[in-house]
Predict the 3D structure of the following.
Amino acid sequence: MRLTINGKSHEVDVDPTTPLLWVIREQVGLTGTKYGCGVAQCGACTVHMNGLPVRSCSIPVSAASGAKITTIEGLARARPCTRCRRRGSITTCRNAATASPA
């Protein structure tokens, strides 16, 4: 099964009923998405699928095939001010004035 996560294509060989959360963490190696309650209530496992927030602990990986999935790692790369914060230049970043706080 092929998944697109944070803009990269990943081929995974898993049972189609495996929760997306465990595929992201164990097969793809992105551990920013966390296990919390296991019943889609706490939000620790939230990812974006085709731009909408979903709880990855309750979605079978088969439902994510063909979707664009974004994890917390992908959101961090998408934010221009993340680099500025790391460099310590947040006050001079032209994007910081228009970006929402992280």
